[in-house]
């Protein structure tokens, strides 16, 4: 997997398409740095397909894990 | 004398004194207002102090008591909250100049619940602009400073909440936590902070930074005070579809129980990776205190945690940029430079990566809970792995070292926002600079009662210096 960070020029292009003005060089550079790290972390955490999961099930997942197993403190 | 001074040690005690007539709400509110006016030049923890409205509400509270009205659990108690909770008719700025003099037409559910319980507000507290920052800096309204030593950072983004409670101006405050924003200000100002389970406290009418990672919770001087505030604001809300319908337990009762046999997990990996020797020593003392109270220490390997801060950021960046999109297009110049970068970083997050991060959360949560909380009941770690930094160490002009320090500030807090697990931060002595250390106690979903029970035992065994 490539570890090259996003090119700030790419950020500038995406921002222009979205109508978000980035008038200097520093802003795209810093956005590229933060986004690259986050993207790499997500890519590095993927181990299996995600077909079985649905974002709206998150609260239900939390509630389902709430009950402590027998013998655990509550 | 401030409301939180030695004579009035905390919110529960103050509420009892008002209830039984040992003090009046007007007296307590006047004391809080005097403390606020006195501390404001030193700490800048308020964006607005509203003495007239507060004293009017306090007089009404005293009149209600005099005529025998049913009194709520916070009757007549003066509080103040982060500038991000809508109050109908009041200017709420989200710590920014971008929102102008916007006056909401409805009141946030949590504020309405506090008011229904009898609490009143003495003003609006400073915060990081749009809750985007862990240090307490605010270039739009002025930096908030640490209650113990103003040369040090107040923490963020609930900077005013931490400083106002730490200085004893108010006995409790609501903040929000998307990456550590309740726990960090609580830690550095020497108070208790509770980030509840995702969905435990409704967010309707509160500023949204990242709806998938936002949590609202209390900061207070003592654990039992935080327990009371949490009990008042928690519970399902039809205005927030992401709020849980699970019943709200008696958190205050939990703080009275002992912790004999409770298994405290000590992480073998990650949480001490960047911890200094002083913080390690403070945590050893903290763990020894829990052991003296009857808890059992067990070592725990924590799965997947190293990537979770960044996984969380992928979500927060994407959602924040979406929420701020119109303002970033129309009036980018109204943002301060640091905050503009943070609000804009979602430009670089592909939608597939955002969704992957949201979907990954469920298997990672199941694995984390299954592995960690099979071996222990509560996971103990330092809230901050480093001593509280001086304000200038975390200034925008701090150079390359700044980014390393900022990353360390949220190193231990952000993973729990990704997972949505409950965490209580408790004072754990002082480091060599005289500022507080803090331990965070994390548990399985909706285990706030257990965490408050352990936190209260910690407080009894290891009172803050």
Structural commentary:
- The complex is a heterodimer of chains A (74) and B (465).
- In chain A, 51% of the residues lie in helices and 0% in strands.
- With 74 residues, chain A is mostly helical.
- The mean pLDDT of chain A is 90.
- With 465 residues, chain B is an alpha/beta fold.
- Chain B has one domain (11-461): Amidase signature (AS) domain (Amidase signature (AS) enzymes, Alpha-Beta Complex).
- Helix content of chain B is 40%, strand content 13%.
- Chain B contains 15 helices and eleven strands.
- Chain B has helices at residues 11-20, 25-43, 51-66, 109-116, 159-166, 183-188, 223-233, 251-254, 277-292, 308-330, 337-344, 351-375, 400-411, 414-419, 448-461, and strands spanning 46-49, 78-82, 120-125, 172-177, 192-195, 215-220, 263-267, 296-300, 378-382, 423-430, 436-442.
- In chain B, strands 4-6-5-10-11-9-7-8 form an eight-stranded mixed beta sheet, with helices on both faces. In chain B, strands 1-3-2 form a three-stranded mixed beta sheet.
- In chain B, helix 4 (109-116) links the parallel strand 2 (78-82) and strand 3.
- Chain B is globular and about 60 Å long.
- Chains A and B meet through helix 1, helix 2 and helix 3 of A and helix 10, helix 11 and helix 12 of B.
Order of helices and strands of chain B: HHEHEHEHEHEEHHEHEHHHEHHEEH
Spatial ordering of strands, largest sheet of chain B: 4-6-5-10-11-9-7-8
Poorly predicted ranges of chain B: 1-7
Radius of gyration of chain A: 20 Å
**Number of helical segments of chain A?**
3
**Strand residue percentage of chain A:** under 5%
How would you sum up this structure in a few lines?
The complex is a heterodimer of chains A (74) and B (465). With 74 residues, chain A is mostly helical. Chain A has helices at residues 8-18, 26-45, 58-64.
């Amino acid at each position: 997997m490539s570890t090259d960070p996003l090119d700030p020029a790419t950020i500038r292009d995406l921002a222009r398409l979205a109508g978000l003005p980035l008038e200097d060089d520093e802003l795209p550079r810093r956005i590229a740095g933060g986004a690259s790290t986050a993207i790499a972390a997500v890519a590095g955490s993927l181990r299996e397909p995600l077909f079985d999961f649905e974002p709206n099930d998150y609260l239900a997942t939390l509630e389902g894990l709430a009950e402590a197993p027998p013998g655990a403190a509550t | 004398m401030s409301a939180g001074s030695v004579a009035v040690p905390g919110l529960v005690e103050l509420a009892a004194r008002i209830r039984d007539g040992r003090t009046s709400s007007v007296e307590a509110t006047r004391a809080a207002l005097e403390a606020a006016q006195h501390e404001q030049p030193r700490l800048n923890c308020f964006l607005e102090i509203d003495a007239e409205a507060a004293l009017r509400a306090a007089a009404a509270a005293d009149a209600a008591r005099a005529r025998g009205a049913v009194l709520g659990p916070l009757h007549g108690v003066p509080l103040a909250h982060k500038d991000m909770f809508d109050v109908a008719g009041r200017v709420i700025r989200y710590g920014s100049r971008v929102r102008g003099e916007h006056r909401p037409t409805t009141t946030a559910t949590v504020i309405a619940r506090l008011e229904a319980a009898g609490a009143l507000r003495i003003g609006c507290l400073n915060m990081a602009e749009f809750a985007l920052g862990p240090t307490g800096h605010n270039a739009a309204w002025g930096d908030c400073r640490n209650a113990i030593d103003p040369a040090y950072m107040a923490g963020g983004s609930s900077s005013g909440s931490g400083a106002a409670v730490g200085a004893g101006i108010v006995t409790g405050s609501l903040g929000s936590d998307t990456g550590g924003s309740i726990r960090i200000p609580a830690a550095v100002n020497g108070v208790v902070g509770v980030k509840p389970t995702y969905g435990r406290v409704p967010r309707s009418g509160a500023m949204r930074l990242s709806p998938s990672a936002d949590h609202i919770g209390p900061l207070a001087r003592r654990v039992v005070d935080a327990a009371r505030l949490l009990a008042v604001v928690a519970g399902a809300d039809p205005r927030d579809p992401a709020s849980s319908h699970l019943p709200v337990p008696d958190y205050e009762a939990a703080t009275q129980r002992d912790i004999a046999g409770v298994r405290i997990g000590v992480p073998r990996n990650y949480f001490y990776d960047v911890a200094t020797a002083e913080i390690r020593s403070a945590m050893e003392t903290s763990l020894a205190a829990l052991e003296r109270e009857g808890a059992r220490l067990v070592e725990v390997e924590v799965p997947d945690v190293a990537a979770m801060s960044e996984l969380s950021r992928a979500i927060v960046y994407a959602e924040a940029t979406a929420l701020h999109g119109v303002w970033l297009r129309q009036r980018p110049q109204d943002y301060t430079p640091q905050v503009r970068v943070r609000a804009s970083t979602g430009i670089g997050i592909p939608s597939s990566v955002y969704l992957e991060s949201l979907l990954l959360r469920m298997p990672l949560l199941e694995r984390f809970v299954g592995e960690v909380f099979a071996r222990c009941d509560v996971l103990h770690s330092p809230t901050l792995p480093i001593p509280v930094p001086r304000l200038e160490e975390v200034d925008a002009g701090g150079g390359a070292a700044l980014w390393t320090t900022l990353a360390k500030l949220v190193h231990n807090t952000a993973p729990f926002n990704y997972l949505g697990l409950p965490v209580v931060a408790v004072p754990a002595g002082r480091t060599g600079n005289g500022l507080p250390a803090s331990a965070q106690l994390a548990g399985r979903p909706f285990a706030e009662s257990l965490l408050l029970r352990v936190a209260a035992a910690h407080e009894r065994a290891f009172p803050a210096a």
